[in-house]
Every structure is written in C-alpha cells, then in structure tokens.
Amino acid sequence: MCLAIPGKILEIKKNDETVFLIGKVTFSGVTKNINLSLVPEAKIGDHVLVHVGVAVSIIDEEEAEKTLNFLQGTGDLDELFDDLISDKKP
C-alpha cells in the first residue's frame, strides 16, 4: 500500500530553481530532506503530505493530526517511520 505521510516544514533550502526545491520536513521527530517542487508555494511551518520523498500537497495542521492519529490507530505508523528512517522504497 502506498501512503502519503503528513510532516511539517522546518526549513527550505534557498534555490533559484523550483524544480529542485528541497526542504527539511519533520515527521513526529524524524527529519528528512524532501522535494518540495510540487508545492513551490509552501512555507516554513506548513504541513505537507509526503509520498516517496516528494511533498504532494499542503494541508492544514488539523488534517495532519487527524491523518497521523488514523495511521497510528491502524498500527501502520511505526512501519512507515521505519521506512522513512531507512529510506526504503515501496
């Protein structure tokens, strides 16, 4: 199953090209560099849905919390975080 995981943007690396726009995103304490090129309007502090290392949309904080709570309730959250940490691809 492929899922998008909500995370919060902590930093956006300065770059003139939006094709390779990269940001540091935290996922409940796990921080990864994420491609933000599909959401060039994203700002530090925004919540984004991330799939396979790419932010695919901006969501509000309430939606991010609901999604994390749902994933935690299904028992899939730990496995998804393990995949994030090890950079495994689905």
Describe the structure.
By secondary structure, this protein is of the alpha+beta class. The protein contains two helices and five strands. The protein has helices at residues 61-74, 77-86, and strands spanning 5-12, 22-27, 30-35, 47-51, 54-59. It has a five-stranded antiparallel β-sheet with strand order 3-2-1-4-5. Strand 2 (22-27) and strand 3 form a beta hairpin. The longest helix is centred in the C-terminal third of the chain and has 14 residues, at 61-74. The N and C termini lie close together (8 Å).
Beta fraction of the residues? 25-35%
Which strand order does the major sheet show?
Answer: 3-2-1-4-5
Report the C-alpha radius of gyration, rounded: 12 Å
How confident is the prediction overall: mean pLDDT?
84
- From the spread of the alpha carbons, the general shape counts as elongated
The H/E string reads EEEEEHH
- SS summary, helix count: 2
Uncertain residue ranges:
none
Pairing-aware structural class of the strands and helices?
Answer: alpha+beta
The N- to C-terminal Cα distance equals 8 Å
Number of strands: 5
Q: Biggest sheet, open or closed, and with what strands and sense? A: 5 strands, antiparallel
Assign a percent range to the helix content.
25-40%
